[in-house]
Design a protein that fits this description.
It comes from Candidatus Odyssella acanthamoebae. It holds the Pfam family APH. The protein contains 11 helices and 9 strands. It is of the alpha+beta class. The protein has 2 domains: 84 residues, Phosphorylase Kinase, domain 1, CATH 3.30.200.20; 227 residues, Aminoglycoside phosphotransferase (APH), C-terminal lobe (Aminoglycoside 3'-phosphotransferase, Chain: A, domain 2). It has a 5-stranded antiparallel β-sheet, covered by helices on one side. It has a two-stranded antiparallel sheet with strand order 6-9. Strand 1 and strand 2 form a beta hairpin.
Amino acid sequence: MKNALHDFLKDHGLATATMTFLAGDASPRQYFRLNRQPDTFVLMNTPASEKPKQFIDIATLLTNNGFSAPQIIGHNLSDGFILLEDLHDDTFTNVLKANPEQAPALYTLATETLVALAQTFHSKPDMIEDYSVRQFMDGVFLFVDWFYPATHGHQLPAKARSEFEKVWLKVFERADTLPKTLILRDFHVDNLIYIKDRPQTKACGLLDFQDARWGPMVYDFVSLIDDVRMDIAPDIELNCWQRYSQAFSQFQEGTMERTITYMVSASRLTRILGLFVRLAKRDNKPHYLNHIPRIWRLLDKNLNHPELAKIKNWFNQNITVRDVKHD
């Protein structure tokens, strides 16, 4: 890798740049900051399994439509290198930790960005795949395949598994009736960058969108307000809902679309319960288990809506243990 990386950096005039490890995430991707005074860049090192071409294509799609995804400066996909514009370190998470009083403004900015995305992408771009029933079901079945065995010590019985499948297939059918747009599928404060010198929604930098699909427009909205990594004050959540339903009146409280939104959020939270156990058990990232209690609180909040009674009943009848023990 060293020779390939040296050649790649040399081709972009960065052979003498200093390189600092930035972070990995829940995936095998790694990020490095390259410093060549006065400029900095970000190098993504990514295996082919992480869809680097799709990342490039979607980043270009977003920037061409006025959104602040990182500009693609260069790439060598055979070696897994992508050279990116450096959007710097002011993730919404970091800003909120340092200045919690900025929460209302940042969540408003994020909501406005989602409104702008939905208003921009009315028809499916050729490169974007549909959010399919198979992807949806594979997602919720992470709960069955990983969370349930980790908490109960055995596989879910066949009858309960069949009931689980039927319940969530009906949810997908309902979700599939919602208006669709480009959904980034990991829209939360860790993946949003505050770029204070850019105007309006351009101040919201976007990361981690290579799994984007064409799907229910509320998917990213519930990713924002039902954040599994950070608690959100109720008044801020309410303000986000008010702005979103002001832009899209079909999602006002009491509408069928609003009810289906709660179902979409419940499906996402169910998937993440399984995903985080898999990250802990298979990938040796036990810190993801710290979020399990919050995910259950959010899931309970959605399941308490009367229209989700059948889903709630399944959980009440089959889930007797909620805590996952650290190995």
